[in-house]
């Protein structure tokens, strides 16, 4: 049947009718707020991040307070990122697996003082003097050598009580190495959310500024994926699944909505995606300038959900909780 019997506008005629036919909804529990914790920052002195309007670097106490305030607004999960002081960075990223490192301390406090689900980013780049995600030999980023360090990071976060670890390094075989490490240390209940399809993207730029993790030489193209490749994302996801990942992630989100859809269609695991710093700052800048209105934020999050993401890590989380 077609026009005039069929009229698509019948189901759009009021807010109430539009509400009952809405196919995609973003729920509070779908959203994960990143929290930046900076070593030695004094309480009450959160630092603004020039390239990320309304995101801050916090001391441990203030970061936990930020989490608590969002929890009161209905937040379910956070992902913690650490920013060590420069003198604690070394070739092997050893402050990343220090029992009393910033992330480890933050995890402990979050678990003590909130009921939030706590996720931690597992990587070396913020902690290495060269800023790469792996151990370096000359200009080469060593794959197999890096695995044991990643495993140490994951175990130290688990000892602090983390619920889910999220490896973002893109070394081959890391999920297997980390799963083995966790299981041997008695952490078989700690889940792994793998940054499976993580592209070498310029949309990470504000984040690297926020956490001082830009590589001191070269770039990340020998480990992160080429933005041109879609089939390769399926291979990456397949390997992570076989190695023991519990949740698969696509990163970034917006320029990769097709990849989210393809992973959702091809795998029976929960699919997460990271609506990264550049995607956040781009919209924020547009809104600040008056080129766009705030509504662009929800529209963006809905597009990510509609593409098939079950979970969204987003810097917008704090901005939209009130509206959900
Ligand atoms: C580090 C890491 C990055 C992000 C999360 N973990 C940046 C990178 O790979 O250089 C990006 C997050 C964001 O842009 O919000 N492995
Ligand atoms: Zn990294």
Descriptive account of the structure:
By secondary structure, the protein is α/β, with parallel strands linked by helices. Helices cover 36% and strands 19% of the residues. The protein has one domain (24-323): TIM Barrel (Alpha-Beta Barrel), CATH 3.20.20. The chain has helices at 15-20, 60-72, 102-113, 143-159, 174-184, 205-211, 231-243, 257-266, 277-289, 295-306, 317-320, and strands spanning 31-38, 47-49, 52-58, 77-83, 117-122, 135-137, 140-142, 164-167, 191-198, 247-251, 271-275, 311-314. The strands form 2 sheets. Strands 1-4-5-8-9-10-11-12 form an 8-stranded parallel barrel, surrounded by 8 helices. A hairpin with a 2-residue loop joins β2 (47-49) and β3. The longest helix is centred in the middle third of the chain and has 17 residues, at 143-159. The structure holds ligand PBG and zinc ion.
Placed side by side, the strands forming the largest sheet appear as 1-4-5-8-9-10-11-12
| Helix amount | 25-40%
Count of discrete structural domains: 1
The tally of beta strands, per DSSP, is 12
Oligomer: single chain
| Poorly predicted sequence stretches spanning 5 or more consecutive residues | none
Largest sheet: 8 strands, parallel, barrel
The named CATH superfamily? Aldolase class I
The SSE order reads: HEEEHEHEEEHEHEHHEHEHHEH
Q: Give the terminus-to-terminus CA distance.
A: 37 Å
Give the structural class. Answer: alpha/beta
Supply the CATH class.
Answer: Alpha Beta
Rg calc: 20 Å
Count of discrete alpha- or pi-helical segments spanning 4 or more residues: 11
Question: What small molecules does the structure contain?
Answer: ligand PBG, zinc ion
- The assigned CATH architecture is Alpha-Beta Barrel
Q: What percentage of the residues does DSSP assign to strands (E)?
A: 15-25%
CATH fold call: TIM Barrel
| Nearest-integer average pLDDT | 97
Label the overall shape. globular
